[in-house]
Amino acid sequence: MTASSTFQDALVRVRALAELANIDLEIIEGLLHPKELIMVSLPVRMDDGSQKYFSGYRCRYNSILGPTKGGVRFHPNVNEDEVKALALWMTIKCAVIGLPFGGAKGGITVNPKELSPMELERLSRVYIRVLADFIGPHRDIPAPDVYTNSRIMGWMMAEYDSIKRTHAPDVITGKPIELGGSLGRDDATGRGAYLCALELIRKMERALTDISVAVQGFGNGGYHVARLLQQAGCKIVAISDSQGGIYAKKGFDVESLWQEKQRSKHIKGVYCNGSICEMVEHESISNDELLSLEVDILIPAALEGVITKDNAHGIQAKAIIEIANGPILSEADNILHSKGIKVVPDVLANAGGVTVSYFEWVQNRSGQTWTLEDVQQKLKEKMTAAFEAVWDLAENEKRTLREAAYIKALRKISAAVEAHGTHNYFNG
Ligand code: NAD
User: Fold this and answer.
1) Residues near 313 by Cβ (< 8 Å), separated by ≥ 6?
2) Domain containing 151 — which CATH number?
3) Per-residue confidence at 20, pLDDT binned at 50, 70, 90?
4) Active site residue 105
């Protein structure tokens, strides 16, 4: 099967790995189709008085393990195909970590940078107005994703509450702390990936201070993983954003770079005008050049589909930790494997965000508020246990880490389906 789209590419992996895991054909078939998919038209009154229509989506992919969970993305490229792929990956991810959730995803096709704050609020609220009966604390629980944040989650919760005449903080996660959000949610995705990196480096029997790292994408995920790895002693030698990247053999001070980026909005421009320029010598590089640097760990933390069969041969990193969802196309998996490159897959490496979202949901439902130390400790336990389980399965069954993660998840989903009975049971 050749992949003609992101969703098709996601299905290639599920089908191949489900067969490897000896999953019943009836169960595989069930995983090839989303449970529910809705596309909605969202009318928004713009500041100039005109009415504009935006396309919105929500996909609940599979709910066998619990209510569905997944982010809402605001981006010009959001479309049905991408939403279905992301919802499928969420299904696998929640099962890998062992969260009592199925997978979902949503989004709006919009460039949020072109909207005023009030237009953005109206758009966020109308999305919930239209989808209020589709989501719910026991049904489907949205969260932030690319270009959505805690403020937007707060508007969405308030809209849901006013429609349902209730107070339901557990309908959405990633909220502001003041509105029932969890401490530790802001850096959870980067921290989860960092915990995976620590485990991997330990398995590689390398010292943290020997490790060089390149990070593509300097947003929520990329910044926090770079910051934490640097604090642990690693050298962050390359970082990029949508404008391009920078490279310095001696490494960067991540926090200073972040502060400069906040001030002048992109790395390259800042870098050559600002104070960091004087701190360390650097070279400008393109995003493609960053991917092929000779480093110990490469972390794609921006977009899907950046490593393909065309550039996989040129990857020189010893290991890849996927923070972005789907940065490596299935066609590149074997090439990377044959080069001996270890890949910690997205469904494990970027699961810190949904894990702390789960903690937020638990706190909201039980009326508790946990300390930052509690959240970070629980995250560490969950991520480390999931990493070890995937690693052991890979070793025992001679699989890559991606294959092992999918096999673990698919077996869990399959066991839940079989508990209801499949054709084997009903046909005696
Ligand atoms: P973000 O919007 O905070 O940051 C994205 C970064 O990528 C920005 O620095 C942007 O400049 C950069 N970027 C955009 N286009 C680029 C390009 N062509 N080349 C290089 N860099 C580019 O987003 P985020 O929340 O950090 O998410 C990044 C990825 O991680 C996405 O794939 C997302 O689905 C995934 N992810 C995020 C979370 C989370 O909790 N934030 C959780 C799981 C997965």
Assistant:
1) 335, 339
2) 3.40.50.10860
3) confident
4) yes
